[in-house]
Design brief:
The structure is a single chain. A hairpin with an 8-residue loop joins strand 1 (37-44) and strand 2 (53-59). By secondary structure, this protein is of the alpha/beta class. The protein is 36% helix and 22% strand. It has a five-stranded mixed β-sheet, sandwiched between helices. Strands 1-2-3 form a three-stranded antiparallel β-sheet.
Length: 207
């Protein structure tokens, strides 16, 4: 599809590589609907025998315009719910309970910040019990802060170009909440932390 698609695909692979997500490029993979554009994908497992496709989808940046709307980037997938449940059971990953609260909203603002946002989000999920929501739709810092407020999160983690260069990241309290007192922050306050300091502070807070 040209240089734009190649560059987009290369950027996607770089994000996957940075996040340590294994993948296999399949140049023969197609989807059954002609509105897909750029990348299509399948998520497969070997834990369910021959029926290994758990979900599949891709980009469809031109679909909304085809339906009469304004040009809108789009990506989506279809997932077999029963197959997903079977996979969770096979891997013994059925959660005991489900929470809907967002604890931490991750904001990536500026060129080159998205890979670090993915890395920090996964590190925080691995080290703590916090529910982390990462902005993945781009947008200005102001628009992302609005999303953070709307999410109901107690905290925002801000990763900008300056923070990326300095290796320190901003942890900001979004609410006035007693839970944040043990973190040393109150509503509106923020602090700058290295990655190690951030993980230690959040781990101790949730311990």
């Amino acid at each position: 599809y040209g240089e734009e698609s190649r560059a987009d695909f290369k950027g996607l692979l770089e994000l996957l590589d940075h996040a340590g997500i294994r993948y296999r490029v399949n140049t023969s993979l197609v989807r059954g609907l002609d509105y897909y554009s750029k990348t299509v994908f399948e998520w497969v497992t070997q834990a369910l025998g021959a029926q290994g496709t758990v979900c599949a989808g891709g980009r469809y940046d031109g679909l909304v315009a085809q339906l009469g709307g304004r040009a809108t980037p789009g990506v989506g997938f279809a997932m077999g719910v029963e197959r997903l449940v079977l996979l969770l059971e096979a891997l013994e990953l059925i959660p005991e309970e489900t929470h809907h609260r967002v604890d931490l909203f991750v904001i990536a603002a500026g060129e080159g910040t998205l890979p670090k946002a993915f890395e920090l989000s996964e590190a925080i999920r691995s080290h703590t019990s916090l529910r982390v929501l990462q902005n993945a739709g781009g947008g200005s810092f102001k628009s992302q802060m609005k999303k953070a407020d709307k999410s109901g999160a107690l905290l925002a983690l801000i990763i900008g170009e300056q923070e990326l260069q300095a290796g320190t990241f901003i942890l900001k309290a979004l609410k006035q909440d007693k839970k944040l007192e043990h973190l040393g922050l109150t509503g509106g306050e923020q602090t700058s932390l290295s990655q190690a300091e951030l993980l230690e502070r959040l781990t101790n807070w949730t311990a």
